[in-house]
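Below is a filled-in request sheet from our internal design queue. Each sheet records the structural input a requester submitted and the sequence that came back. We keep these sheets so that new team members can see what a complete request looks like end to end.

REQUESTER: design group, bay 2
PRIORITY: normal
MODE: inverse folding
CHAIN LENGTH: 454
BACKBONE (tokenized):
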């Protein structure tokens, strides 16, 4: 329709121009210079108006394309112009403008929606330029996991986390790596994965970082529980007959010994009988002890239900202080308790939590023996909205090569230890959906940190 009107206007103007040319030529043959000059001026005016008529649509189109190039969709074109062809052209331009504006709004809304989702998830995400190493975008979870206020380049990781920096530089699209890093809140296991994509002719690497310590701990604990169930079953099946047989042999031996003592002239080596009786007694006691040990672990693996209540930490510490202070002071160890704020509370099983803290205090008491000014400090506070309990001592510390093994069931570095306490503490904390971490320096001391969910 626009082109039909344009062609009609152009046809009218060409006809008028040809008519004026005819009149001008006619005036020229009649030697009427005044009329001829007037005709020439009118022809020039018609040519000028024709040129403007032809090019004004192009000018409007150029103005519209320039606005599109600059992404200026706020410009409006007059739809009430007297020229019908321009009026329809302006209407079409405004319609395209509105469409682009709506698409831009929808695209911005989708971008904000994706930004919100990526900021809310607990997995750290970072987009890196593969050529320059510059960080294009990073979400809050990534910075929170690593405790970084900002990150402009992956080289910024080198000073704080050289192992992570090396892994990020070497990771390939589709790869996954499990790293053990020492973060501010303790040692953690991080899962690093990457994927590649291209945006605006640039090759970017999207790196995901997730703290999987809790998942790995839960998986390890479940594996240990399965192993312990098998072990305790086999131990009890094997040891129970030995204990029963030892008891039977002991009774028979006692009866035979009494028989020889009552019969005059009976020959028996009293020393041999006594040694045999003592040996059978030892076998019986050790078998019964092993059965009790296996029975304890079997019950532990079945204990999965918590009696959850609101636990006020001040009262919990008061109970533990009253129970443990006399024992510690008897060994010259000072016990301190601090709770901030005083009304600090958490949701948990008070009996199991007492058991965890008492086990840690007993380990601390053993570690400070023989140290100058031995002391154990029990503290509780809030960190990032979470309740944290710490058991700190100034003991001998734990060698770094043993730190990864101390929570393994049956593992112990003490001759009189059973390897039960710390594995039990870890199991109880996982039941509370929390975690237990350790930070230790040889010759300085050890801090066990219990982290509870908000």
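RETURNED SEQUENCE:
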């Amino acid at each position: 329709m626009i082109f039909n009107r344009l062609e009609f206007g152009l046809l009218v103007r060409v006809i008028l121009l040809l008519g004026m040319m005819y009149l001008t030529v006619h005036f020229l043959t009649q030697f009427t210079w005044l009329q001829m000059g007037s005709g020439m001026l009118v022809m020039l005016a018609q040519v000028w108006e024709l040129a403007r008529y032809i090019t004004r649509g192009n000018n409007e189109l150029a103005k519209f394309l320039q606005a599109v190039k600059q992404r200026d969709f706020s410009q409006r074109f007059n739809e009430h112009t007297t020229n019908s062809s321009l009026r329809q052209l302006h209407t079409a331009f405004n319609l395209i403008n509105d469409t682009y504006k709506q698409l831009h709004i929808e695209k911005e809304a989708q971008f904000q929606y994706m930004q919100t989702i990526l900021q809310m998830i607990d997995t750290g995400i970072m987009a890196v330029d593969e050529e320059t190493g510059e960080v294009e975008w990073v979400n809050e979870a990534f910075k929170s996991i690593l405790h970084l206020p900002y990150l402009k380049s992956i080289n910024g990781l080198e000073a704080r986390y050289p192992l992570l920096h090396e892994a990020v530089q070497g990771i390939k699209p589709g790869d996954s790596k499990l790293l053990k890093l020492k973060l501010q809140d303790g040692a953690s296991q991080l899962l690093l994965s990457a994927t590649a994509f291209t945006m605006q002719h640039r090759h970017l690497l999207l790196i995901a970082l997730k703290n999987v310590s809790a998942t790995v701990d839960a998986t390890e604990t479940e594996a240990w529980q399965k192993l312990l169930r098998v072990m305790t079953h086999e131990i009890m099946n094997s040891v129970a007959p030995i204990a029963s047989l030892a008891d039977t042999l002991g009774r028979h031996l006692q009866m035979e010994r009494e028989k020889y003592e009552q019969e005059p002239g009976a020959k028996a080596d009293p020393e041999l009988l006594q040694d045999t009786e003592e040996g059978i007694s030892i076998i019986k006691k050790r078998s019964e002890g092993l059965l009790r040990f296996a029975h304890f672990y079997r019950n532990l693996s079945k204990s999965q239900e918590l009696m959850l209540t609101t636990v006020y930490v001040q009262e919990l510490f008061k109970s533990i202080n009253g129970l443990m202070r006399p024992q510690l002071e008897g060994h010259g160890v000072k016990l301190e308790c601090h709770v901030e704020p005083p009304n600090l509370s958490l949701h948990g099983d008070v009996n199991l939590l007492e058991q965890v803290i008492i086990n840690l205090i007993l380990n601390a008491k053993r570690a400070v023996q023989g140290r100058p000014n031995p002391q154990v400090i029990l503290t509780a506070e809030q960190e990032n909205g979470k309740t944290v309990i710490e058991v700190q001592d100034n003991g001998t510390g734990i060698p770094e090569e043993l730190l990864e093994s101390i929570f393994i069931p049956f593992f112990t570095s003490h001759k009189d230890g059973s390897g039960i306490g710390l594995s039990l503490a870890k199991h109880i904390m996982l039941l509370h959906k929390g975690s237990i971490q350790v930070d230790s320096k040889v010759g300085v001391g050890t801090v066990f940190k219990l982290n509870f969910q908000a």
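SHEET NOTES:
- The chain has a mean pLDDT of 77.
- Residues 265 and 450 are 71 Å apart (CA to CA).
FILED BY: M.R.
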